[in-house]
Amino acid sequence: MSTAAKGLRPIITMVSTAGTGRTYVTRKNRRNTPDRLVLRKFDPVVRRHVEFKESR
To answer: Pfam families, per this entry (predicted)?
Structure first.
């Protein structure tokens, strides 16, 4: 991968808001979503969908 591709779509870690410590790893496009990303994903510890927020 070139350095330009790494800068535009960085790898981010999503942390569960349920407090379980569960994480997801994904990529995001900095140009389209410059703010912190928030997604509803499944947390297997609490066995339900919860919000996962981007950590830095």
So the answer is: Ribosomal_L33
